[in-house]
Amino acid sequence: MWRICIRGMSSGCWVGADSPDTGGMTPLSGLLLAAGRGERFRAAGGDDKLTAPLPGGSVVVLAALQRLQAALQRWNGGPVIAVVREGRDDLAALLRSHGAEVVVSARAARGMGASLADGVAHWPADHAVLVALGDMPDIAPATLAAVGDALQTGASIVRPRHFGQAGHPVGFAARWRPGLQALDGDHGARDLLRQHPDQVVWLDADGDPGCLRDIDTPADLGALAAPWSVHHGSARVSDSTSPIASAPS
Predict the structure, then answer these.
(1) Is 186 exposed, middle or buried (0-12, 13-18, 19+ CB in 10 A)?
(2) Is residue 22 part of a domain?
(3) Is the model's pTM score more than 0.70?
(4) What is the pLDDT of residues 201-239, one digit of tens each?
(5) 244 domain residue, yes or no
(6) Alpha carbons 96 and 94: distance in angstroms, whole number
(7) CATH code at 9?
(8) Is 66 in contact with 165 (CB distance < 8 Å)?
(9) pLDDT digit string, tens, across residues 21-72
(10) Is 42 part of a structural domain of the chain?
(11) Alpha carbon 140 to chain centroid distance?
(12) Distance separating alpha carbons of residues 99 and 122, to the nearest angstrom
């Protein structure tokens, strides 16, 4: 077993990562979930959270998309499949115009599990996948890189945690496609992780609060890194005999 440590640049740890040798690597795609209603954002006085503006001129969902796309380039990866709900033709067009493959989920109202399953149905069967959320634009590039690197090293399920709290993205090897495609309701992949704690590699991302930080209200926009596009965090891989923790509740 192993741990991957991700620490802030101020910690004095190793910063950056060499681009890996892409020969013989597991194909890797991205899945971006953008099918929520954003009701709490609207209730707090906002409009559509996914298209809320960020410093620098981008919007929430495009920032999340572009970070995922940049991570996939590290491994010569496959596409990002973005899942949207019915009636969001505007959002689908925006995501397509920035290179995403868009899946319209007819079951999005059932919850994140249903949206995830609909996206997985379009996930290339032999690919591992990074599952990210469209309302999380501030995940450190080092965290995304570490999740993908762990999959390339042979990990089955990979998830970052920030001071013990589970974050995103979550990486899944190709063998989890049937289980993910069977999901429904609003639990996402949470139940699957709980059922297979021995398969989860946890990444200690204590230098990356962005792996927890989603946009629920307009006030959350003010908590983002300024500017959001700063490449923060660092990663290193080290051997460890520590047991992999079970999935938190």
Answers:
(1) exposed
(2) no
(3) yes
(4) 999 999 999 999 999 999 898 777 544 443 344 333 322
(5) no
(6) 6
(7) 3.90.550.10
(8) no
(9) 445 578 899 999 999 888 888 888 889 999 999 987 899 999 999 999 999 9
(10) yes
(11) 11
(12) 16
